[in-house]
Amino acid sequence: MAHTITLIPGDGIGPEITEAARRVIEAAGVPITWETVEAGEAVIEKYGKPLPDSVLESIRKNKVALKGPITTPVGKGFRSVNVTLRQELDLYANLRPARNLPGIKSRYQDTDLLIVRENTEDLYAGVEHRVGRDAAESIKIITREASRRIARFAFDIAQKQGRSKVTAVHKANIMKLSDGLFLESVRTVAEEYPQITYEEIIVDAMCMKLVQEPEQYDVLVLPNLYGDIVSDLCAGLVGGLGVAPGANIGLECAVFEAVHGSAPQLAGLNQANPLAIILSGVMMLKHLQEYKAAAKIEEALIKVLEEGKHRTFDLGGKTTTSEMATAIIDKM
């Protein structure tokens, strides 16, 4: 089946790594028409904003997008394009797998975690204001509807992937109303899945336990802020953000992207590690039910890592971005 997919190259290293992913995906034999659209700081002068309406229109039309990283200014400037995309398209579920890959340096083995992060509310709703000159307030928004929806997503994907346990991560000992409502909502959904073990853990204890014994956990479901932080911690367990894929999934649309940022200092050098976005492309192909092509890429990527001859500088080698893509294609 032919697919039309929105391609957002992004900025910084985005164009280089998305090109590598595009080459690998096409080599797997899936007929794809790419509809390329621009977003990020570089397009503000042209369109007046970092997220042009044409980007949202393209994704709404095609239902699926592969997105490169986009720089977000710290403490000033425009609001995160990533957050805006998720809210505008109601991409309520952020899915971030973290598993050990052969040949990737890590202190851990047999880690295979699935982080399911609520994507539309919590402190990331961006409801904040100044209180006089010397204070600022951010409002943490947690709703029963969004909490139940992300809980059902977590239990459904656990069931689909044959996973046995879902852990809800919270801080309800302190935020008794907001995180308390999140827990109450997840518990209600958990009752519908008696075959899946359900447990709860406070977020700071979760961070400690993940460092001590990550193999004890399976699927984690978290509100937005904790999910963002814990998913990066989990990426660290398996080798870093360079091997961390991600997906943002809603009822109508899905956007697939690497977890890492745009690394503008590496832009144009052909040095960036493309594995995270290639693995995000594998998640995209599975979403499109192109399972054979997804398996083909995964098997080729693992063979390249096992051989150890092709590694980008962050993995201890000298292979370029484009050479890494070529090595994976050759294995197919």
Summary of the model, kept short:
This protein has helices at 14-27, 44-47, 53-62, 81-88, 144-160, 178-190, 203-212, 224-237, 275-287, 291-307, 321-331; strands at residues 3-8, 32-36, 64-67, 93-99, 112-118, 128-130, 136-138, 165-170, 197-202, 219-222, 245-249, 254-258. It is an alpha/beta fold and 332 residues long. The mean pLDDT is 93.
Architecture overview:
The chain is α/β, with parallel strands linked by helices and 332 residues long. It folds into two domains: 1-93 and 243-332, Isopropylmalate Dehydrogenase (3-Layer(aba) Sandwich); 107-237, Isopropylmalate Dehydrogenase (3-Layer(aba) Sandwich), CATH 3.40.718.10. The chain contains eleven helices and twelve strands. It has a ten-stranded mixed sheet, sandwiched between helices. A hairpin with a 5-residue loop joins strand 6 (128-130) and strand 7 (136-138). Helix 5 (144-160) packs across helix 6. It starts with a strand and ends with a helix. The mean pLDDT is 93. GO terms for molecular function: isocitrate dehydrogenase (NAD+) activity; magnesium ion binding; NAD binding. Keywords: Magnesium, Metal-binding, NAD, Oxidoreductase, Transit peptide. One of its GO terms (biological process) is isocitrate metabolic process.
CATH architecture of the largest domain, please?
A: 3-Layer(aba) Sandwich
Instruction: Assess the beta-strand content as a share of residues.
Output: 15-25%
Instruction: Compute the average pLDDT.
Output: 93
Return the string of H and E elements.
Answer: EHEHHEHEEEEHEHEHEHEEHHH
- The count of helical stretches stands at 11
In CATH, the homologous superfamily of the largest domain goes by the name Isopropylmalate Dehydrogenase
CATH class of the largest domain, named: Alpha Beta
Number of domains: 2
Indicate the CATH topology of the largest domain.
Isopropylmalate Dehydrogenase
Shape, per Cα inertia axes? globular
Helix/strand/pairing category: alpha/beta
In oligomeric terms, what are we looking at?
single chain
> How many strand segments?
12
Query: How much is the radius of gyration in Å?
Result: 20 Å
- Helix content range: 25-40%
Q: Would you identify the regions where 5 or more consecutive residues have pLDDT less than 50?
A: none
Major pleated sheet: 10 strands, mixed
- In spatial order, strands of the major sheet run 2-1-3-12-11-4-5-10-8-9
End-to-end gap: 20 Å
